[in-house]
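User: I'm new to structure prediction. If I give you an amino acid sequence, what do you actually give back? Let's try with this one:
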Amino acid sequence: MILVGIGGNLESPQFGPPRDILAAALPALEEESIRIVARSGWYRTEPVPLSDQPWFINAVLSVSTELGPADLLERLHSVETRFGRERSEPDAARVLDLDLLDYRGQVRHTQSLILPHPRLHRRRFVLEPIAEIAPGWRHPISGLSAAQLLARLPPGQEIERLIC
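Assistant: Good question. You get back a string of structure tokens that encode the predicted 3D arrangement of the chain. For your 164 residues, that looks like this:
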């Protein structure tokens, strides 16, 4: 299983509000040989870490591809750039964010790629969508399910599933 987080909290002159941007990014991923197998619902989530920037729209995708993890990450970054993502500082507001969360359970730590995503186990906006589309998924390092990881989170990180 390959899991990709998708989110954003800024509008785009070309694509409109965040939810429209994310919807437009889905076919752009398919054009990059990244087939979407499943998509969670859309979630409205507060910024993590907490800040005064706009709330995010987030989801998690299960994808299929022949690309290896490094090439997949490169394609995800390419799609972000096409949609106007500007990398400035960590946790900054952004038009589109595509995170490689898990690649077939691999554990890697290089300068350009860390698998699984180093913060996924601490983020409700990632774990709830994973639990929705992949209840049998287990964290490659801890072996815990998304539901078990959710139960361990401290209070906070407001999240609301959008009706769509």
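You can read the tokens as a compact description of the fold. Here is one thing that stands out. DSSP finds four helices and eight strands in the chain.
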